Amino acid sequence: MLRHPDARGFGTTPLRSRAWFDNPASPDMTALYLERYLNYGLSIEELQSDRPIIGIAQTGSDLSPCNRHHLALAERVRDGIREAGGIPIEFPVHPIQETGKRPTAGLDRNLAYLSLVETLFGYPIDGVVLTIGCDKTTPACLMAAATVNIPAIALSVGPMLNGHYRGERTGSGTIVWKARQMLAAGEIDTKGFIKLVASSAPSTGFCNTMGTATTMNSLAEALGMSLPGNAAIPAPHRDRAESAWHTGRQIVEMVRADRKPSDVLTRTAFLNAIRVNSAIGGSTNAPIHLNAIARHVGVELSLADWEEHGADVPLLVNLQPAGEYLGEDYYRAGGVPAVMGELYRAGLLDGAALTVNGRTVADNVAEARIEDERVIKPFSRPLLAAAGLTVLSGNLFEAAVMKQSVISPDFRARYLSNPEDPDAFEGRVVVFDGPEDYHERIDDPALGIDEHTLLVIRGAGPIGYPGGAEVVNMRPPAALIRAGIDALPCIGDGRQSGTSGSPSILNASPEAAAGGGLALLRTGDRVRVDLRAGTVNALLSAAELDQRRAEQQANPFTGPPSQTPWHEIARNETGQFAGGAIIERAVKYQRIAQTM
Ligand code: FES
Ligand code: MG
């Protein structure tokens, strides 16, 4: 890359955009590059003035309503960039909308990652503002920034306002599970169902519950990749626009300081984020996404780290689905800085971790205090003593996770009440092959599902159901719900929506379609779960398992056919959930902006 030792204000660090716009070694190409960016109104003076070109990676669009408010926020980002001396260039990111994308938005995270890597690498961009929000948009953007490694800062779109229905808070995502149960029990009709569900989403922004969106936006902040306080400001709130302006100013400073993702996304930062994930009651999608970001930036991180560093961290945030409140309450109670302040003062965070503003975690949380103890609990009085993930293994899979915060007193009483064996339960399984099979048969009385049944779903991992389906949180048959049983333990190789409070063992790796043991299970088998030992085992002899494996290999489980080119490519290239479900061959491309 061309070096500009006398570049104004940027020390000895050259701007990579100079290779396009001011390259004495290649004046003809410089002219061509300049000409195309001049043609909408930029000037030669600007483009050759040693001002950094700042990309605004725009994830909002009419197809992505959760992130749509970024279209408005980008104006304030531009103002901040201009004010600090940069030149904003906004461009679209492949759209992802969690609930609208078929067959699943999980497929699009890696696609958005690939296309953003290509954009950031191949165009004259010195630094980038990542507009994050809806579930997969956050990891897709952070993964791409990790691979390319140009200065990058995340701007959250913020949660929606709180939903209300007949005087009660209704949370986006969480209300759907409740509404489905009410519909199944005949308490509401279809019209009432729609009205109840829609009440939970009253404004622009991402889901207002502690689902995957709030989780990942909180963790982007915990990782140090966004400004302190950024995650929780509700989308329509005036503070959100102000944060956008500060973010625009900050990215210009980051380019000046050459502060890159690899400086922020260290193993220390990931371990801090794991602890924050427990304290907020974060989504079970978090380990998939954080492990993916870590692998792209070259940091060692495994599911074992989640258990070792996160399992014993208490739950502090009282948000649905684990608790009562919603996004507006989270913000007013102090948001992520308040949570991190509690953890830091309790000695659970490494305060030395660097963040995008050039300050450390310790600096950022020094003044942070809880503003409402109903919503964010002090460390000394948590909602739950240990809220992290339990990692399980056995003869059905090498690794699966269960969120400890969903083990409710009701679940404990029903399944973990044997005084001789207080951490274990076993039951007969009913096995479904993919989401369609489950939807078709769940209410079939012939399955004999009762309150002791374990529901199993397979063919729902990244290969079996391209992208991986969010289906492991299966509702019991309607008849059982009417009898008062509103959740059964579930096991599966798919994911679960971050807004579900269901007691599920999920993300099983390897999945059935990749030769995992779930493929061998049959309805009627018995499975034993031991939460203390961290094991899940089918109670079958080794000989029986071997025989079934031989049968299975003769007739392998393939899942539904691919419907688009990307379905097929993704199935061939994507690894398992335990390893972040990334494009495995992408890992060898690291810090690629520095290779130019
Ligand atoms: Fe987009 Fe929840 S569906 S944030
Ligand atoms: Mg989701």
TrEMBL record:
<dbReference type="InterPro" id="IPR056740">
    <property type="entry name" value="ILV_EDD_C"/>
</dbReference>
<dbReference type="InterPro" id="IPR037237">
    <property type="entry name" value="IlvD/EDD_N"/>
</dbReference>
<dbReference type="InterPro" id="IPR052352">
    <property type="entry name" value="Sugar_Degrad_Dehydratases"/>
</dbReference>
<dbReference type="Pfam" id="PF24877">
    <property type="entry name" value="ILV_EDD_C"/>
</dbReference>
<dbReference type="InterPro" id="IPR000581">
    <property type="entry name" value="ILV_EDD_N"/>
</dbReference>
<keyword id="KW-0408">Iron</keyword>
<keyword id="KW-0411">Iron-sulfur</keyword>
<dbReference type="Pfam" id="PF00920">
    <property type="entry name" value="ILVD_EDD_N"/>
</dbReference>
<comment type="similarity">
    <text>Belongs to the IlvD/Edd family.</text>
</comment>
<protein>
    <submittedName>
        <fullName>Dihydroxy-acid dehydratase family protein</fullName>
    </submittedName>
</protein>
<dbReference type="InterPro" id="IPR042096">
    <property type="entry name" value="Dihydro-acid_dehy_C"/>
</dbReference>
<feature type="domain" description="Dihydroxy-acid/6-phosphogluconate dehydratase C-terminal">
    <location>
        <begin position="375"/>
        <end position="581"/>
    </location>
</feature>
<feature type="domain" description="Dihydroxy-acid/6-phosphogluconate dehydratase N-terminal">
    <location>
        <begin position="51"/>
        <end position="364"/>
    </location>
</feature>
<keyword id="KW-0456">Lyase</keyword>
<dbReference type="GO" id="GO:0016836">
    <property type="term" value="F:hydro-lyase activity"/>
</dbReference>
<dbReference type="GO" id="GO:0051536">
    <property type="term" value="F:iron-sulfur cluster binding"/>
</dbReference>
<dbReference type="GO" id="GO:0046872">
    <property type="term" value="F:metal ion binding"/>
</dbReference>
<keyword id="KW-0479">Metal-binding</keyword>
<dbReference type="InterPro" id="IPR020558">
    <property type="entry name" value="DiOHA_6PGluconate_deHydtase_CS"/>
</dbReference>
